[in-house]
Amino acid sequence: MNSKKVFLSIILAAAIGACQKAPNEAQSSNEILKSPISSVVFGKWRGDCQVWGSGEYQTSGTPYFSFSETEAATVTEMFKGDGCSGELNGRMKMVFEFTVESQSSSAPEIYNILVSARKILQIFYDQDTVNASNTIAYCGFTDWVAGVEKDVSDRDCFTGPKLGEKIYSIIRISGGKLNLGQPDDANNGTSPSLRHKDIDSTKTFVKF
Predict the structure, then answer these.
(1) Where are the beta strands (DSSP E) in the chain?
(2) Which of 100, 127, 157, 170 has its CA 20 to 30 A from that of 14?
(3) Which residues form the domain of 85?
């Protein structure tokens, strides 16, 4: 299982932040949260089945997002093989501080957001996976136990932002579907002026 890919696939990335905001972007965060935007963004979203690795190490997972006024969380349920079904092998949960800052001027279905990683938790249910994780000291631990969750925040097994690091990003919601932003070399999301421009159209979430 490639946990780096799991992490990168769910990190929220963003749309362009213009120096001069259009009128609909001049609203404060509080005004945005009280507007109909909140009913569009907030709630639970389910992603498509994703596959990592190959052969006996192949793992698949279904990511779920939830958004509220102050928090975003993603849970990825992991299974052996490529079908995202059968016996649950493990679960990863990531919790972020989350704010809808404004509606983007680039398109009405795009929203500027600010996120900050708060906690990353992981659990394995399969004993073979636990044994393998202990053998390779996965995330620096050699005492994994089946069914016992560990806090793997800020461990070497992940790439991406550290806890507390702010990421200026976007999400796109159109036709009942949600897509996350993604970084590029020129827009890494570390400041409003470097807000990510691109949308990841390869991973789509639907509200449920």
Answers:
(1) 43-47, 50-52, 59-67, 71-80, 88-103, 110-124, 150-151, 166-174, 177-182, 198-207
(2) 157
(3) 3-207
Which pLDDT band, with edges at 50, 70 and 90, does 151 fall under? very high
pLDDT tens-digit profile of 10-23?
Answer: 332 222 222 223 33
Q: Each residue of 61-100: pLDDT tens digit?
A: 999 999 887 888 999 999 988 999 988 999 999 999 988 8
Structure tokens at 32: 């945005």
pTM: 0.73
Please provide the distance, in angstroms rounded to a whole number, between the alpha carbons at the two ends of the chain. Answer: 27
Alpha helices of 11-140 — where are they, by DSSP H?
A: 29-34, 37-41, 127-135
Count of structural domains, the chain = 1
